[in-house]
Amino acid sequence: MITKNKISPFYNTSLEKELEGIKQVIVCGILTNLCVRSFIQDAYDREFKITVIKDCCVAHSEEIQEFTFYDLAQTREEIDFTNFKEFVE
Question: pTM of the prediction?
Fold first, then answer.
C-alpha cells in the first residue's frame, strides 16, 4: 500500500520505485478528473503503456467523466481506453 498526500500518487511517495521494471499500467479509480487523471498524466510522462478501464472509474458527473476521457484521448493518443468486459476477454 502506498499512502499519498497529494493528487498525484507519484508525488513524494515510493510509487515510482515500486514500478521499476514495469512497462504497462492498468488504470481505474475514483475521481477520474483528479486522481485518476493525475496518475495517467504522470505515468504517461514516465513512458508507461497505459490502459484505462473506463467503466471502473468514476467522477462527480457523467459529463466530467466523459470530458476527462475525451481530453486525455485527444492529447495523448497512445493511451488505450476500454471497458471491463473487453479487458477481461
Answer: 0.91
CA-closest candidate to residue 35, choices 6, 69, 14, 13 = 6
pLDDT at 1: 84
Q: How many residues make up the chain in this entry?
A: 89
**pLDDT tens-digit profile of 2-36?**
898 899 999 999 999 999 999 999 999 999 999 99
Position 77 in a domain? yes
Element (H, E) at 29: strand 24-30
The number of folded domains in the chain is: 1
C-alpha distances out from residue 87 to 16, 34, 53, 58, 83, Å: 25, 23, 7, 17, 6
